[in-house]
Amino acid sequence: MNANQAATEPLVELSHVEKRFGDLHVLKDINLKVAKGDVLVVIGPSGSGKSTMCRTINRLETIDSGDIRIDGHPLPQEGKDLAKLRAEVGMVFQSFNLFANKTILENVTLAPIKVRHMAKKDAEDLAMGLLARVGVDSQASKMPSQLSGGQQQRVAIARALAMHPKVMLFDEPTSALDPEMVNEVLDVMVELAHEDMTMICVTHEMGFARKVANRIVFMADGQILEEGTPDEFFENPQTDRAKDFLSKIL
Ligand code: ADP
Ligand code: MG
């Protein structure tokens, strides 16, 4: 393979992905390629399958048919390889999902020690650096419940980064936050994007989408209806569903 081909090979590729929950057809022929350094923003009405799509990418959900590849490799089914995949694909959820009975520092060092077999001291150095990067290093010895929502979400980002992920998935990371805390989390995401992190972000923060995304995907009813640059999508949506959605949120 020459250098050119390597550069253009997608980091994340979904091909003809189908997913049903019983009778409910939640993902319908999803095809998506995310290149290294892409910041993809996924938007669409509630119930359109955005979270399910994200969850299939680190195999928190299985798929019924189709194919998902990270860096050219099919998703592992189980065991050590699956733990490694989950490390390569960082995920930040709406509800911060920190371990409630562990300190902030332990939340960040846990996976590097368990999965990457890092020495405790090295994991702590790494974690403190990341906590400083997201501006919560002074909280390291506290428990999650002692932090604000915005702080907890920044810890969740640091925890994912500690595994040196190839791609970060954000599923409505600011939706559960009080309004005054939204920007402190978005700022961290903007910084990551500027550092060339590959990101897939489900968000209703249209300011973020316009400023930071290089591609927008619009989903409705389990399908990708539109895909384009922010300018193309926001200035010139093609489908009635997208026009209707935008008229309600902008
Ligand atoms: P979105 O994130 O776009 O709001 P979701 O992916 O959460 O959409 O959900 C898509 C559809 O799948 C919704 O109708 C939702 O109720 C349904 N759904 C999601 N998870 C499950 C599940 N574990 N079991 C059954 N139905 C589910
Ligand atoms: Mg969702």
TrEMBL record:
Membrane topology: Peripheral membrane protein
The ABC transporter domain, residue ranges: 12-246
A GO term, aspect molecular function: ATP binding
Subcellular location: Cell membrane
InterPro entries associated with the record: AAA+_ATPase, ABC_ATPase_HisP-typ, ABC_transporter-like_ATP-bd, ABC_transporter-like_CS, MetN_ABC_transporter-like, P-loop_NTPase
Main subcellular location of this protein, as a coarse class: membrane
Keywords for the protein's UniProt record, in alphabetical order: Amino-acid transport, ATP-binding, Cell membrane, Membrane, Nucleotide-binding, Transport
The keyword Membrane appears for this protein: yes
Pfam family, one: ABC_tran
Family assignment from sequence similarity: Belongs to the ABC transporter superfamily.
Descriptive protein name: Glutamate transport ATP-binding protein gluA
Species in which this protein is naturally found: Bifidobacterium panos
